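Quick one, T. Sequence first:
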Amino acid sequence: MNQGNVNELTKAEEKELQSISNLIFVETIACGFYELKKIEITLPHDIPRGRIYTREKIGELLLSNDRFSILIETNDGKYLYQSSTVEIPEVTPHP
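Structure tokens:
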């Protein structure tokens, strides 16, 4: 996962993140709601395809076993990127 301030990225870095992402969400003026700006994959059946997504639905995508390259830009100038190659660690219960 990569995160930081958008204004700290060069234009080339910003374009690269956008080009390697198959889902891009941008936060709306209503905090906690995100507009889908780019989609290049099929979403899981339990995630409805729409224009506006809640923080919770995006969290489901980030934690999904289907693995997506997701870029999220917030309305306060921050970004979060998760590559589709990130593996979510298994939780091993303690005896």
